[in-house]
UniProtKB/TrEMBL annotation:
It comes from Corythaixoides concolor. One of its GO terms (molecular function) is microtubule binding. Keywords: ATP-binding, Cytoplasm, Cytoskeleton, Microtubule, Motor protein, Nucleotide-binding. This is Kinesin-like protein. CDD domains: KISc. Residues 3-359 form the Kinesin motor domain. Belongs to the TRAFAC class myosin-kinesin ATPase superfamily. Kinesin family. GO terms for cellular component: microtubule; microtubule associated complex. The gene is Kif12. Signal peptide: none annotated.
Length: 363
């Protein structure tokens, strides 16, 4: 069994790019191929799925394998989805949709991203599978190689990242918020979204020459799903006032996770005009992305030829070790800009995605 092959999404040219006359150098040719053509470059890449500028958020959810990933998480697997690509390539848009203009002007439902669609899907699953799902969520960011809890009240403080034989890498004292289950599940999912948005506002963003709103931290939202089959009798007892205590279910419980990772963008310090504190940030971001790339290229080698995988090189790779390293299932979505100005980053994202295709898993 393998991780699903990474799909690629090419976003439309933004207004700014169109206004300044950027050329579109990336085209989808159909049949899962992306063609890059510019002055000295002419290359075609093949993927499991390619979403071009016209693809809807729904098409990305259905065509990327995200629905299957949610189902696998409910089945007890550790599942992870992350978008990668340079700043401004559409990672956050793909995961969460466009950010709401204001509190009373939320984004249109059609524009909601993989995350909200997965929540809806979880809810459908819990209804159709006659299983009782217990959900809880945790939300972390990695900023300047520090792990911080986005759900804890007060100023963010760094949490230690530890390793144990039974758990692998884990974050100590990480907060996890319960969504109780069953009847209230819809409310609780919405509540999680509120928490998420509250968390989002506290995410580190800083003015930046390339993209003012670019995220400078890696954010990881994990939904813990514990499922326990419920007998029909117990189910009836819940809907009508119980006459007697329902029989506890004897089915074993399954525990899966669904983790959404919004990576900070990669960029060259020189190009983006970062200086001082910003260049320390950029170096830390690039270091963890490099470590991630390095782990992925080693994992892409045939099992027998694999060297030691250096997960310990960054906090990001430690936290992703379980999902990348074979006991989890990871969906990676490559995000690229069609603009001629982004050519070199686009090529590197496409090469990276091609390499990730060869990573196998044994969930
Ligand atoms: P990243 O998270 O990779 O830095 P964003 O998701 O913030 O990039 O996207 C950059 C800009 O492009 C945002 O203004 C976003 O709304 C817009 N954008 C990205 N993808 C799309 C898309 N598929 N359709 C329309 N606009 C998009
Ligand atoms: Mg972003």
């Amino acid at each position: 069994r393998s991780h699903p092959h990474p799909p690629t999404r090419v976003r439309p040219l933004t207004c700014t790019e169109a206004r300044r006359g950027d050329r579109r150098v990336v085209h989808s040719l159909g049949g899962g191929t992306v063609h890059v053509s510019a002055a000295r470059h002419d290359a075609t890449f093949g993927f499991s799925a390619v979403f071009d500028a016209g693809a809807s958020q729904e098409a990305v959810f259905e065509g990327s394998g995200m629905r299957q990933l949610v189902e696998q998480a409910v089945d007890g697997f550790s599942c992870t989805v992350f978008a990668f690509g340079q700043t401004g390539s559409g990672k956050t848009y793909t995961l969460m949709g466009p950010l709401a203009q204001s509190e009373d002007q939320p984004a249109a439902p059609a524009l909601l991203g993989l995350m909200q669609r997965s929540f809806t899907c979880l809810l459908e699953q819990s209804r159709s599978r006659s299983s009782d799902l217990a959900l809880s969520a945790s939300y972390l960011e990695i900023y300047n190689e520090q792990v911080r809890d986005l759900l804890s009240p007060g100023p963010p403080c760094a949490l230690p990242l530890r390793w144990s034989k039974t758990h692998g890498f884990y974050v100590e004292n990480q907060l996890s918020v319960d969504f109780e289950s069953l009847e209230a599940i819809a409310d609780l999912l919405l509540q999680a979204l509120d928490l998420l948005l509250a968390g989002s506002q506290r995410r580190r963003t800083s003015a930046h020459a390339l993209n003012k709103h670019s995220s400078r931290s890696h954010a990881l939202l994990t939904i813990h799903i514990r499922s326990r089959a419920v007998s029909a009798r117990a189910r009836r007892a819940r809907t009508s006032p119980p006459m007697r205590i329902p029989q506890p279910s004897t089915c074993p419980s399954k525990q899966g996770t669904l983790c959404f990772v919004d990576l900070a963008g990669s960029e060259r310090v020189k190009e983006t005009g970062s200086s001082g504190e910003l260049s320390v940030e950029a170096n830390n971001i690039n270091r963890s992305l490099l470590a991630l790339g390095h782990c992925i290229s080693l994992l892409a080698k045939p099992q027998g030829k694999r060297a030691h995988i250096p997960y310990r090189d960054s906090k990001l790779t430690r936290l992703l070790a379980r999902s990348l390293g074979g006991s989890g299932i990871t969906l990676m979505v490559a995000c690229i800009s069609p603009s001629s100005r982004c050519l070199s980053e686009t090529l590197s994202t496409l090469h990276y995605a091609s390499r990730a295709r060869r990573v196998t898993a044994r969930p």
